[in-house]
Each structure stands twice: as structure tokens, then as C-alpha cells.
Amino acid sequence: MQRQTTLVKPNETTKKWYIVDAANKPLGRLASEVAVILMGKDKPSYTPNVDCGDYVIVINASKVSLSGNKLKDKYYYRVSGWTGGLKKRSAGEMLQTRPCEMIEKSVKGMIPHTSLGRKMGKKLFVYADDQHKHEAQKPVVKELKF
């Protein structure tokens, strides 16, 4: 008897809301775990061509940790498109001024760079402190594996 792989259709998926606390967690490990939840790879009904992942709320983004000398040696680049329009910020500067953007960039770099990946990226909500505005969705606290 042959086994058949079950492929989930978009209307058959159920989405949950999770809260992840980023306080004192390494940035890369946090981002990879959150990306797995957003893609739905932690579910037995994972289907690569369907957005079957859950919503994730990351709180305490300003308290995320970076190991080694990354606060001064790691840089985030962006280009305006004009000549000489390269802007760069160190990770320490990003952590002080834009901690939410720092986590969003690291998570979105770990999900697919396709239209489905952009849809998955919209299910990520990052807040610098422990306050968020998603109480109506009744999110569940998710403990990460590391």
C-alpha cells in the first residue's frame, strides 16, 4: 500500500497567533525560529506552495542580544539609488534607534523571496517593548526551542 502525501488547500488552513519574547535571545536564533512559524514548517500539514503559517508578535525587540563584537562590526546597508546614496548603520545604532526594523530584516531574509514570502512577511508584528495592540486575537505565548 502506498502512502499519499496530503496537500493542504488555502481554505483548509487554520491560523493561530503567537507571542514571542525577544528579551535576551540571540538575534539569529530568534529570527530562524520565527521564520519557521511564519512559513508553517512546524506543522505536520506543511505545504510549500500554500501560506499555512501562523501570525507572530515579537515583543521586547530592543532587548535582543548579539554575540561577540557584532554591535560595532555588523552593518546594515541601504541604497537610495542615487550616486553616493549608500547608507550604512551599525547593529548597535540599529538596536538603539530601530530595533523593530532590525528583527524584521533578519526574519524576512529567512523566508522565501517570492510573492508567497511577502504574504508570509505581513504576518509578522514587531514591537520594541512589551506592549502590543493584538489582544483581541487572543495570542498564545510561544516558548522557543533554544
Task: Provide keyphrases for this structure.
146 residues, alpha/beta
Structure description:
The chain is α/β, with parallel strands linked by helices and about 150 residues long. It contains five helices and six strands. Helix 1 (about 25-40) links the parallel strand 1 (about 15-20) and strand 2 (about 55-60). The chain is globular and about 60 Å long. The model has no long low-confidence stretch (mean pLDDT about 95).
Strand content: 15-25%
Major β-sheet annotation: 4 strands, parallel
* Spatial order of strands in the largest sheet: 5-2-1-6
Overall shape: it is globular
Q: What's the helix and strand layout?
A:
Blueprint: E1 17-21, H1 27-39, E2 55-59, H2 70-73, E3 75-79, E4 86-90, H3 91-97, H4 99-108, H5 115-121, E5 124-126, E6 140-141
Parallel strand pairs: 1-2, 1-6, 2-5
Antiparallel strand pairs: 3-4
Summarize this entry quickly.
It is built from five helices and six strands; from the N terminus they run βαβαββαααββ. It has helices spanning 27-39, 70-73, 91-97, 99-108, 115-121, and strands spanning 17-21, 55-59, 75-79, 86-90, 124-126, 140-141. It has a four-stranded parallel β-sheet with strand order 5-2-1-6, with helices on one face. Strands 3-4 form a two-stranded antiparallel sheet.
